[in-house]
Amino acid sequence: MSAGLRQLFRRGENRVRASSVLMAIQGGIVGWNSGSAPYDGVNPSALPASRTEELAGSEAGEWAAARRFASQTPVPGPPVTGG
What we know:
This protein is mainly alpha-helical and about 80 residues long. Helices cover about 70% and strands about 0% of the residues. The relative contact order is 0.14.
């Protein structure tokens, strides 16, 4: 349980990850707005939405995998005794 709580409060890591996704989305918007590749094709309006969904889905998957790994990592400390 403590490993899960520790992961929830990794604000620095969460902020960096969220910022990198935000920057990627903003870069896509700038590319779309300027009409540069790949937004210069037949249906450029559909690309920003699909790219944003890809980024969000990818990050959510990586975040979940990191949380799963952290919950499996043993936390050093005294052994737990029953009783």
